[in-house]
Amino acid sequence: MVQFSAILPSFLGVVLTSGDMRLRMLEVLGHGAYGVVYLAQDLNYSSSQPKYYAVKCLLKQPEDSEHYRLQQREISYHKAASSLPNVVRLHQVIEDDFYMYLVLDYCPGGDLFSAIIDRGVFIDHNERLRRTFLQLLDAVHDCHDIGIYHRDLKPENIMCSADGEDIYLCDFGLATRHKLSVNFGCGSSFYMSPECIGDCTGRKPFVTSISDIWSLGIILTNLITSRNPWHVASPSEDVAFAAYLQQGETWLRRMLPISRGACSILARIFVIEPERRITLHELRNAIKELNSFF
């Protein structure tokens, strides 16, 4: 696959202008397959009270190409979700002859992956973990409520505020408005549901909103244990997942350092038959009522 981000020039020091907005690119925040994200300072604000944005720089695609269609779809879905409380806001899209610039909220706390792995902020912190996961549930519920199904839920696509108290969902590049999908293998393998992989459930249309719930279960495991329960939800590719299919909740209790209550919740998420999986509403109530995750 072409890594479009690899052929982008450096935008460091560049000033973007659109209407009243003037943004100077200060530093690179991160790279993806399709773009590079920069920290940008709004030059309309004084240096004593600076205002910052994150700017995602993308190579402009030919209007008759599939990449252009996917680019426009991502922008459309992100705009539609931008007014939701726990979603990174897309403020503006700036274009020139060769590039597109998505002006987004800057979240100085970094992504949830770094909070979990690098800073360990959730270890033995029940209420912090509960608050974070409930916010994530609300973000996903609100997106589903307006007919947007994310399909790539993972800690790297969840941003944190400076104090770590609030989280915001981002990256709608794989999102869909289709309630049913036959787009197998869409997302990140660690977080894909069995029905999205299609190995042990058969390749049949699956419900995208329910598939998102499986991904939330993997994220909840990340938050509690700083690890994944398996690499991929395919018994032919992952012995840990194959063992879970045979032993169920017993395997989860033995392998994961979590409370019985948390284990019970995960077992209700990691149900192979999507129609029997816990709902978002039920999951939210279960998380609120849980005494301890550890």
Give a written overview of the molecule.
- GO terms for molecular function: ATP binding; protein serine/threonine kinase activity.
- ATP binds at residue 56.
- Residues 23-294 form the Protein kinase domain.
- This protein is α+β, with helices and mostly antiparallel strands.
- The protein folds into 2 domains: 4-105, Phosphorylase Kinase, domain 1 (2-Layer Sandwich); 112-289, Transferase(Phosphotransferase), domain 1.
- The chain is built from 9 helices and 10 strands.
- The chain has a 6-stranded antiparallel β-sheet with strand order 1-2-3-4-6-5, with helices on one face.
- A hairpin with a 3-residue loop joins strand 5 (90-95) and strand 6.
- The chain is globular.
- The mean pLDDT is 96.
Low-pLDDT parts are none
What's the CATH class label of the largest domain?
A: Mainly Alpha
What is the domain tally?
A: 2
The CATH topology of the largest domain corresponds to: Transferase(Phosphotransferase), domain 1
Summarize the structure.
It contains nine helices and ten strands. With 294 residues, the chain is α+β, with helices and mostly antiparallel strands.
Core attributes:
single chain, 294 residues, alpha+beta, Phosphorylase Kinase, domain 1, Transferase(Phosphotransferase), domain 1, 2 domains, 6-stranded antiparallel sheet, 9 helices, globular, ATP-binding, Kinase-like protein, Ser/Thr_kinase_AS
